[in-house]
Design brief:
heterodimer; A: alpha/beta; Rossmann fold; four-stranded parallel beta sheet; 5 helices; 34% helix; globular; B: mainly alpha; two-stranded antiparallel sheet; 51% helix; ATPase_V1-cplx_fsu_euk (chain A); transport (chain A); V-type proton ATPase subunit F (chain A)
Chain lengths: 119, 209
């Protein structure tokens, strides 16, 4: 496992997860937990948050892709994640286009520039 | 003659330098100037990174949207329930992996690589010496030694072109995701460097704030 690099995880709706699994990121066998979660109508916020935290705690995951509307449900967990790895990327979904104002990374970057700092 | 080695903002007095306080304040001013120059450079780099991030995000979003459209076309061709979680394999090996390298402390770079056959030492004639003459040849270790299957095969032998296009779009998306993750990391790193420099500047020039 150490020789093959890190995994890319995905938490998203059916199309997003199917698409990225088609791209070849999926891992699933009886010994290991999957690196993806398909969020459906009956998926609870607790399940999403638990899966997100599991992905954060795994040391073999380098990037977590997450639909932005799902990221909004667990925004507190995303904002609390300050480490560089795994990196969390918010992506749009079919019904919810990407909104830069909601992105955790860009909100932190916006907070860099205040009038006092630039004096 | 005195050599003018001080930067523009600090000019030596005509009456000769005064020992003690004068030279100390010159040193502080020079240090502050250096820090400000460094801050400016870092700020410009950060702004450049943010601009690049915005560009890559737009491309990633476009690729993902193309991928959805292709998936929809594939569903139209194959049937609504023919492209979805019901077709996922029960055993998956990742074909794509991420290599993370650390250029400086806290600064990471990500790169997507295609992993070929996994663990070649698992494949092959481990049992060559024990090959049995009778009975059908069994390969009990194949479940761990077979090459990672193309996920396209989950959906059938002959898949429509739209499904291949979807795969290509999402594969491009993965490359972009790695670039974006690297940029995000660089921006975070730049933020922490910026804060550090601002703190140092405040210590040097407490009255300037």
């Amino acid at each position: 496992m150490a020789g093959r690099g890190k995994l890319i995880a995905v938490i998203g709706d059916e199309d997003t997860v199917t698409g990225f699994l088609l791209g070849g990121i999926g891992e699933l066998n009886k010994n290991r937990h999957p690196n993806f979660l398909v969020v459906e109508k009956d998926t609870t916020i607790n399940e999403i948050e638990d899966t997100f935290r599991q992905f954060l705690n795994r040391d073999d995951i380098g990037i977590i892709l997450i639909n932005q509307y799902i990221a909004e449900m667990v925004r507190h967990a995303l904002d609390a994640h300050q480490h560089s790895i795994p990196a969390v990327l918010e992506i749009p979904s079919k019904e919810h286009p990407y909104d830069a104002a909601k992105d955790s990374i860009l909100r932190r970057a916006r907070g860099m520039f205040t009038a006092e700092d630039l004096r | 003659m005195k050599d003018l080695v001080c930067p523009l903002a600090v000019l030596p007095t005509a009456g000769g330098d005064k020992e003690g306080g004068g030279s100390e304040s010159d040193y502080v001013s020079m240090a502050a100037l250096d820090l400000r120059a460094e801050l400016d450079s870092l700020l410009l780099q950060l702004l450049g990174d943010l601009e690049e991030l915005e560009g890559k995000r737009a491309v990633l979003n476009a690729r993902v949207e193309e991928g959805w459209l292709s998936l929809a076309k594939a569903r139209y061709a194959m049937g609504t329930k023919s492209v979805g979680p019901l077709q996922y394999a029960s055993h998956m090996e990742p074909q794509v992996c991420l290599q993370a390298s650390e250029a400086q402390e806290g600064l990471r770079k990500f790169k997507v690589v295609r992993s070929g056959v996994h663990a070649p030492e698992e494949v092959g004639p481990r049992e060559a010496a024990l090959r049995r003459r009778k009975g059908p040849t069994k390969t009990p270790e194949l479940q761990s030694s077979e090459a990672p299957r193309d996920p396209l095969n989950w959906f059938g032998i002959l898949v429509p072109h739209s499904l291949r296009q979807a795969q290509a779009s999402f594969w491009d998306g993965l490359q972009l995701a790695a670039d974006i993750a690297s940029l995000q990391n660089r921006i975070d790193w730049g933020r922490s460097q910026l804060r550090g420099l601002q703190e140092k500047l405040k210590q040097l020039e407490p009255g300037a704030a």
